[in-house]
Amino acid sequence: MTSADIDRELERLLPRVQKPGRYTGGELNQTTKDWRRVLTRVAMIFPDVYDLGMANLGLAILYDIVNRQPDMLAERVFSPWPDMEGAMRQAGVPAFSLETRHPLDEFDILAFSLPYETLYTNLLNMLDLGGVPIEAADRTRDDPLVIAGGHAVLNPEPMAAFVDAFAVGEGEEVILDIVRCHQEWKGSGRPRLELLRSLAGIWGVYVPSLYDIDYFEDGTISQVSAGFPEARMPVVKRIVPKLPPPLTRFIVPYIDVTHNRIPIEIMRGCTRGCRFCQAGMITRPVRERPVLEIVEAIEEALARTGFEEVGLLSLSSSDYDEVLELVRQVSDRFAGRHVGLSLPSLRIETFSVELMDLLEAQSHRGGFTLAPEAATERMREIINKPVTTEQLLDTAREIFRHGWHAIKLYFMIGHPSETLDDVRAIADLCREVRAIGRDEIGGRAKVTAGVSTFVPKPHTPFQWVPCDSFEQIRAKQALLKRELRGPGLKLNWTNPRETQLEAWLSRGDRRMGNVILEAWRRGARFDAWTEHHDHEAWMQAFAAARLEPEFYTHRERPIDEVLPWDHIDAAVSKRFLTEDYLWSLEGRTRVDCRERCFACGILPKFVELRRMHPGDGWECPEVRSPSRMREDVIPLVPA
Amino acid sequence: MSSQPRSTRYRIRFKKTAGMRFTGTLDLQRTLERTMRRASLDVAYTQGFNPRPRLSLGAALPLGLVSDCELADIWLEGAGEPGRVLDGLRRAEPPGLEFLELEPVPDEEPSLQKLITAAEYRAEMDPDGADGEIQDRVEALVGKESLPRERRGKAYDLRPLIDSLEVETDSADSMVLRMRLASREGATGRPDEVLLALGLDPLAARICRTRLFLSTPTHSG
Questions:
Q1: A238: closest CA among A286, A168, A314?
Q2: C-alpha to C-alpha distances, A261 to A54, A148, A267, A488, B106, nearest whole angstrom
Q3: What ranges make up the beta strands (E) of A502-602?
Q4: What is the mean pLDDT of residues B176-187?
Q5: N or C of chain B: less Cβ packing under 10 Å?
Q6: C-alpha to C-alpha distances, B120 to A47, A439, B184, B191, B194, nearest whole angstrom
Q7: Are A306 and B38 in contact (CB under 8 A)?
Q8: Do A15 and B63 touch (CB under 8 A)?
Q9: For testing the chain A interface, which of B20, B22, B34, B45 should be mutated: the one with the most A CBs within 10 Å?
Q10: Above 70 in pLDDT, residue B132?
Q11: Which of B22, B38, B49 sits opposite A303 (nearest CB)?
Q12: DSSP state of B45
C-alpha cells in the first residue's frame, strides 16, 4: 500500500474508531519534508498509544534533532489502539507515520523509544503491523534498520533478537552518528552485516548479534564474548557532556492526551543514591541547565504552543543548585499569565512548601506529592532514603497550613527484608498525616497513598536481590487495603501481575526473547494497560520457551554471577554497587554525593569530558590532575 | 477593590477544515484557548476555583464533519481592536482552523447556545447509481408527518427537526443533499440521522455545515 492508498482507507476507517484524532497527524508544529529530497527517513516510534506517546520528551527531542538536518527526516508512529489495529488488519492497512502516512517498511531506520519494559510486545506488534521481519536475523538489506533507546535498554538482552542496534544512554548525539553511519553504508551495496559492524564502532551503540552468550547448566551465564573485533566489551553508555538548550517546539495535539503541558528538563542525573532507583544510577553524572536558559525556554515554548501548563522536570528538584532562584524567576516572569507551573520530585522538608507557595502563587489547586517510599527507620536505612517521620509530619503540617487540601504519598513495598510490620507502618503513617490534616483544616483533608511494588533493577545496588513473592505482595496489599479505608484516605496499588511482568522483562537474559515472542504470538499486547494485560499468555509463553519465571525473579543471585546486563556499562561500577549492597545489609546509609564523592565510577570513566567541561554544570568534582589519555577511558569523539 | 477591567465580547466566525475533522467540541475548545494564548490575546478569565479563558461555543458540531461557518464568542480584557485581534488569531492559527471574521458583540446578548436556532448542512456521497431514487426517498421522507426515532435510548420525533431537505445534485459523478435542521437546546436534528432515515450510510458521506442561523437578525452567520 502506498501513502495515497492509506489516505483513502483512513477516510473510511477513522469515523468508526475511538478517538480518531490519534491517527490523523497534521498537528501544529509537526514537521513534514519531501521524501524525495532527503537521504534518510527515520520513523520515531513510541510503541504505545498516541495519548501516552505524545508526552514522551525523549522522542520529541530526537524528532527535532533529526528534522533540523537538511538531509534527513523524522516522522512519528504510535501503536494503534486495539480497535484501530483490528480495522487496519482487516483492511490490509500497514502501520504508517502520522506526518505523511508512509508505511513503516518504507523508512530507512525505525527508532523505537523504550522508557520501560512492558512495551516490548507492542514493539514486536508494530514490526508485524509494518511488514518488517520481527526477528533481526531475518532482515535483509532492503529492510529498515531497527534501533531502540531509552531506560529499558540498559538491559537490552531480552530484546536482542528483535533489535539490530541499541542506543545505550543519551540519544542527542548518537542518533546523528547512527544516521550518518547508515548514510555511508546505504549507497555502498555492502551487506547488512557490514552496517551492523560499523554501528558497533559508535560510542554507546550495542549490536547484540555481534556477541555470543554461553550458559552454564543451571541457566546462569558463563560468559558474554565479542564475536567481532568491532564489538566493544563492555559497551559504555553515551552521555552528552553539556546539556543542550531545552526543546521548545512541541507538537500540539488536537485531542486530549495524558500530559497537556510543556516538559522542561532542568537537570539530568541524581546524587541521592536511593538504592532502589535505577533512573538515578543510570542517568549520572548530574548536569544542570542554567536558570536563564530554562526561563527563556519556557517563554519560547509558551509562544509556540499556547499550552497552559509547564512541568520543570528532574529526578530530585530540591537538589538543583539554584532552585530558589529558579522558582523566583519563573514565578515572577509568569505570574498573572495563567500558566500552571509544576515542580515535582521535591524533597520532604518544609522548604519545599515555601517553594511551592511561590510557584503556585494563585491557588493551590492540585494535591501536594511527597515520596517517602518507606515508613520505618530500618527500611529507610536499607533503601538509603533516610527521611524521618518527624520531617514528613512537619512538612505535611506546613502543606495543610499553606492551603493545600490533599497530600499524595508514594510508597514502595517489596524491598529486601521488609516485614508486615514495616507495611503496617505505611498505613499508620498515612493516618497520622490525615490526623494532622484534620487538625489544620478539618474534614476536607485527604491523603492518597500510591503504593508501588519494588522490582530490583539492573545497575542498582539491589540488582542481586530477589523479588518478593506473589503471595507476599498480595498479603501486603491486602493489609494496606484493610488499614487504609475510611474518609479522607485512598489507596492506589499496582497489579502484582504487571509487576511480575516488569520483573521478568527487566531482569531477563537473551533467552527471554523466546518468551516475549511466544507471548506476543498468543495475543499479548499493551501489557502496561490493566485491561489488556494477559497473564495467561505469558505463563504459556514461559512453558513454550521451556523457562522458569522464578529463575529471573526469585533467585538471590550470588555477587559473582555474570548478570545478563554486565556487558552494558552504565559507568557506575560493579565495585561501587557491590559495596552499596553490602552497606544496605548493615542498614548503613550514604549521604548525597554532592557532599562527598564516593567514586561511584562515573568520574574516572568520563574524566576527559569532565576536564573539557569544568565548572558548575556538572555535580561531580573537578578534575585537576594533568591529562593522561588512557586506553580504557572514553576518548572524545573524533572530529 | 472594585473596578473590574471592562471585558469586550467578540464573535469569531471560522472554518473547521479537514485537518480538524476528528476534533470534538471539548478539544476544539482547548484548541481555541491555546490559539488565543499563542496570539498573546488579553483573554478574560472566569472567576472561581479553576479560572478558564472565557470562551463560548454553540451548537456542537458532530465528529467527522467540517464546517464553513463555526462561531465562537470570546471575551478580551479592555477594548481591543478587532482587526488586530483577527490578525493575531490568524498568525496563531493551527492547521484545520481558518479564521474568517471577528466582530464585537454586545455583552448583554444571550449565549451563542441560546441564539442559534438552526443549521444548514451539505452532504456529499458517491453516486448510488439508481436513477432518481434519492429524489423519491427525499420526497417520501419530507411527506411524512412524523419520524419516530431513538437516540441514546430515548424516543424522539425527527420530522419536526427537519426544516428543509432537498437533493442538490444527483448525477453520475456525485450525489449532494442539502438540509436545514433545527439546532436548539433539546431540539437538535443531526445530519447523520437524516441520512440514516433515508437509508444511506452516514459514515460514507462527507458532510459540511454550511450555515448557522441565529435568532438576532444583525448577527446571522
A1: A168
A2: 10, 26, 18, 29, 34
A3: 568-569
A4: 93
A5: N
A6: 42, 60, 13, 9, 12
A7: yes
A8: yes
A9: B22
A10: yes
A11: B38
A12: B
Residue B54 near chain A (CB below 8 Å): no
Q: Do B23 and A255 lie within an 8 Å CB cutoff?
A: yes
Give A411→chain B minimum CA distance, Å.
Answer: 30
Q: Phi and psi of A22, rounded to 5°?
A: -70, -25
Q: Which CATH architecture has domain B114-219?
A: 2-Layer Sandwich (3.30)
Of the candidates B34, B40, B96, the beta carbon closest to that of A26 is on B96
Give me the pLDDT at residue B47, please: 87
Question: Comparing C-alpha atoms, which of A151, A164, A160 is closest to residue A193?
Answer: A164
- Residue in B with minimal Cα distance to A303: B38
Q: How far is C-alpha B19 from the chain's CA centre?
A: 16
Q: Which residues of A are less than 8 Å from B203 in CB distance? A: 12, 15-16
Sheet holding A368-373, edge to edge: A368-373, A406-413, A446-453, A489-493
Compare CB distances from B34 to A24, A306, A365 and report the shortest one's residue: A306
Residue type, A308: E
Give the other-Cβ count within 10 Å of A309's Cβ.
Answer: 13
Report which residue type is found at A564: P
Distance of residue B218 Cα from the nearest chain A Cα, in angstroms: 33
Place of cell 517498511: A105
**The pLDDT of residue A210:** 98
What's the CATH class of domain B7-109? alpha beta
**Do B7-109 and B114-219 have matching folds?**
yes
- For chain A, the residues whose C-beta falls within 8 A of a C-beta of chain B are 12, 14-16, 20-21, 24, 26-28, 30, 252, 254-256, 260, 302-308, 338, 362-363, 365
pLDDT at position B4 is 52
The residue of chain B with its CA nearest to that of A253 is B31
One-letter amino acid at B122 equals: R
User: Which of B22, B40, B203 is facing A21, going by the closest CB pair?
Assistant: B22
CB A98 within 8 A of CB A137: no
CA nearest to B154, candidates B184, B188, B180, B199: B188
Cβ neighbours around A462 below 10 Å, total = 23
The set of cell numbers assigned to A101 is 502516512
Block mean pLDDT (10 aa), chain A, length 639: 94 93 97 97 98 96 98 98 98 98 98 98 98 98 97 98 98 98 94 97 98 97 96 96 96 93 96 96 96 98 96 95 95 90 92 90 78 96 95 96 94 95 97 97 95 97 96 97 95 96 97 98 96 97 97 94 97 96 95 94 93 91 74 49
- Alpha-carbon gap, residue A404 to A369, rounded angstroms: 11
Helix or strand run (H / E) with residue A110:
strand A109-113
User: What is the rounded average pLDDT of the residues B41-65?
Assistant: 90
How distant is the Cα of B23 from the closest Cα of chain A, in angstroms?
Answer: 6
Chain B CB contacts of A251 below 8 Å: none
What is the structure's pLDDT at A64?
Answer: 98
SS3 of residue A27 by DSSP = coil
Q: pLDDT, tens digit, for every residue of B147-168? A: 999 888 889 999 999 999 999 9
Reply yes or no on whether the pLDDT at B89 is more than 70: yes
Distance CA A322, CA A294 (A): 12
B-chain residues within 8 Å CB-CB of A256?
26-27, 30
ipTM of predicted complex: 0.91
Q: Comparing C-alpha atoms, which of B64, B104, B71 is closest to residue B85?
A: B104
How many Å apart are CA B208 and CA B166, to the nearest integer?
A: 15
Q: Which residue ranges make up each domain of chain B?
A: 7-109, 114-219
